[in-house]
Amino acid sequence: MRTATDKTSAFDALGELLGERFTTARAVRDEHGKDASWHPPQPPDAVCFPASTAEVARVVAICAGERIPIVPFGTGTSLEGHVQAPHGGVSVDLSRMDRIVALRPADLDATVEAGVTRKQLNRLAADHGLFFPVDPGAECTLGGMAATRASGTNAVRYGTMRENVLAMTVVLPDGRVIRTGSRARKSSAGYDLTRLFVGSEGTLGIATEVTLRLHGLPEAISSAAVSFASLHGAVHTAIRTIQSGIPVARMELLDALLMDAVNRYARLDHAVAPTLLFEFHGSAAGVEEQARDVAQIAAELGGEGFRWSVDAAQRERLWEARHHAYFAALALRPGCQGWTTDVCVPISRLADCVLETQQDLEESPLLAPIVGHVGDGNFHLVMLVDRDDPADQAEAQRIHERLVARALAMDGTSTGEHGVGLGKRAFMAAEHGDALDVMRAVKAAIDPLGLMNPGKIL
User: Which domain holds residue 417?
Assistant: First the structure.
C-alpha cells in the first residue's frame, strides 16, 4: 500500500461533503477500530457516515486522490479483525444507508442498501410470506454479510451469501460505480463479478446495494434436541442425517463443556452431554417425518432423551442453549477473551476433524468449547484466553494452527464462515498455493494503490 500524501486536504474535503457526518473524534474512531474478534483494536484516523452511493463514491475518490486507506464498516460484528485499521485511514460506516429499495414478492427477491440488517428485511418480507434465510446469529448488515460471505445456522438447507446474492452495486477503489449481475436467476454473460465481490471483505470495493434471493416461509417448523454419551455419537448422527438426504434446516452441535456452561449461564436443565439441536421446515406431515427419521438415526448411535416440538414457545426453549452459547462460554473464565475460530471440512471427514480436535483440547490447559453448524461440516472453537498471559496466547495459537492444518489436510478450508480478515491470512498460501498469486493479481488490477481495507486477506 502506498503512503498517504496529504490527509489534511482530504479531511477538509470530506468535512465539506458530509458536514457532521465526518469526524475525527477519538471515541468514534475507537468504536470503529474494533470488532467482535480477539484482535487488538486499531482505530482509523477518521470516520464518515455517507447516506448514498453517490456520497460513498465521492468519499472513495477523495481518499484515492490522497492515497488514504479506506475501511468499510457495517455493525462491527465480524470475528477476524475485518474492520481494524492497521494502516489508519478512513472508516466508511454504511449504517445510514438503511433503505429497503424494493421488495418484489412475485420474483422472490429484494434490493437493499448495504446498511439494512437481516432482521429489518425479514420484518418486511414476513408481511408477504417470505424470509431471507442467511442467519449468522449477530444482527449484521446485509452489506457486511455479503462482504464476508456470511452463512450461519440455516446454510445447510438454504446456502450461504454466495448462493443468495443475485447482484450488487459496488463503488470501486477509484470512485467508479458498477453493478454486478442482474435479477435473473442464471446468466452465462461474462465473468461472474458478483461472486468475485461476495467474500472480498471490502478489499476490492464497497458494496452499497445488494439484491438478494428471498424464500417462502415454511408451512410448518419443528425443532428437536438430543444428547449423547459421547461426541462420537453426536457427530456421526449429524453425518448420517446429511448422507440420508433428510432436508434439515438447521443442525447444531454443542459439546458437553458448552452445555454445562449454558445451563449455568441461562439456568437451563439440559443434560451435560454432547447435544445436537435440529430445526425442520416443510409441511406439517413433512416436519414430523423428518424428526422421526432423525430420532431413529440418533437412537442407533446412542442418542438419548430426543425431544421434539412444533410449538413456538417450546421450540424457542429447545434452541435457547444455542442462543446463549457464546456468552455462556465467556462466563466459564471471567475476565478472559474469547478467541473464536472456525474450519470447515467435507462431511465425511467431520468426525475425524472434531474428534482429533477434542483430543487436542483434552491435553491442553485451555478451556475451549466446541460448537458447530455440523450439517455442512463447519465447526468453531471458543478459546478462552487471558490477553495478559503470553503462555495462554501461545497455547491458543498452537491449537489454532493445529486445527487449521488438520482441516486443510482433510481437503477442507481454514474458515467456513468467519472469513480471513487479519486472523487467517497466515494460512492462505497453504490453502490456495499458486492460486494466491491470482488473487493478488486481481487485487492489483482493481486496487493498484492497495487502499481498500489494506492488510486483510492478502
Answer: 333-424
Clarify whether residues 353 and 316 are in a common domain.
no
pLDDT, position 69: 97
Cβ neighbour number for residue 405 with a 10 Å cutoff: 14
pLDDT in tens, 158-212: 999 999 999 999 999 999 999 999 999 999 999 999 999 999 999 999 999 999 9
Q: Residue 318: pLDDT band by 50, 70, 90 thresholds?
A: confident
* Amino acid type, 208: T
Q: What does the block give as the cell for 244?
A: 440420508
d(CA 74, CA 136): 14
Residue that finishes a domain, picked among 60, 95, 130: 95
Q: 329's torsion region: left (phi>0), alpha (psi -120 to 50) or beta? A: alpha
Q: Is residue 74 in a domain?
A: yes
- pLDDT tens for 65-111 read 999 999 999 999 999 999 999 999 999 999 999 999 999 999 999 99
Q: How far is CA 210 from CA 108, 261, 456, in A?
A: 14, 38, 22
Q: 256-266 and 312-323 helices cross at what angle (nearest 10)?
A: 110
Q: Tell me the one-letter amino acid at 253.
A: L
Q: Which residue has the cell 475485518?
A: 82
Domain for residue 239, yes or no?
A: yes
Q: How many domains does the chain have?
A: 4
Per-residue exposure over 242-273, b if at least 16 CB sit within 10 Å of its own CB, e if not: beeebebbbbbbbbbbbbbbbbebbeeebbbb
Residue 370's region, left for phi above 0, alpha for psi from -120 to 50, else beta, is: beta
DSSP string, 54-115: HHHHHHHHHHHHTT--EEEESSS--SSSTT--TT--EEEE-TT---EEEEEGGGTEEEEETT
Whether 219 has a pLDDT exceeding 80, the answer reads yes
177 near 171, Cβ under 8 Å? yes
